[in-house]
Specification:
By secondary structure, the protein is of the alpha+beta class. Helix content is 38%, strand content 38%. It has a five-stranded antiparallel β-sheet with strand order 1-2-3-4-5, with helices on one face. Strand 1 and strand 2 form a beta hairpin. The chain is rod-shaped and about 95 Å long.
Length: 168
């Protein structure tokens, strides 16, 4: 009779064993969820850094146009820059950069070519400072941008000073 009782007791799991398995499942679940949260935050930060890196091309485009210019015009108190330059064929060309709202618009020969920044980049400020010397002209540029998806709302500053090639 005792062997029959032992067989019946060995058939099922005890409450302690069940609790042990539940605790192990909860610990593993918490570790997996935590890893997913960390990966999501890391992905968002990588996306913000990628957008900022792409936005640095704005300053590169402005600098390239300034280098090729032979005359610059900035309006004091505004975020506007007008460049007189030449195109690849040698014809005169006017390039304008205008900062309005959160966008920097590009105009070529008074025709809107579009915005330099993408929809995920907010331009916070754009400043042009003209530097004139008897030996030449230069332009100091300060650009402050912010990624639209950045939950920390960090501002990223870019600086450049460009000498006009035609001015020396």
């Amino acid at each position: 009779m005792t062997s029959k009782k032992n067989k019946q007791l060995n058939k099922g799991a005890s409450i302690i064993e069940t609790l042990f398995y539940v605790v192990i499942f909860v610990i593993v679940s918490i570790a997996v969820i935590n890893a997913m949260i960390v990966m999501t935050k890391s992905f968002k930060e990588t996306k913000v850094q990628r957008e900022i890196a792409q936005a640095s091309e704005i300053l590169e485009r402005i600098s390239r146009e300034i280098r090729g210019a032979y005359h610059i015009e900035t309006l004091t108190g505004t975020n506007y820059l007008k460049l007189d330059t030449k195109d690849d064929a040698g014809a005169n060309k006017t390039v304008e950069f205008n900062f309005t709202g959160n966008n920097i618009s590009l105009l070529e020969n008074s025709t809107v070519a579009g915005n330099l920044n993408g929809p995920n980049i907010k331009v916070q400020s754009l400043t042009f400072t003209q530097l004139t010397d008897p030996n030449g002209q230069a332009l100091k540029i300060v650009l402050t941008i912010q990624a639209a998806d950045d939950v920390q709302t960090r501002n990223f500053d870019f600086y450049d000073t460009v000498v006009l090639r035609g001015s020396y």
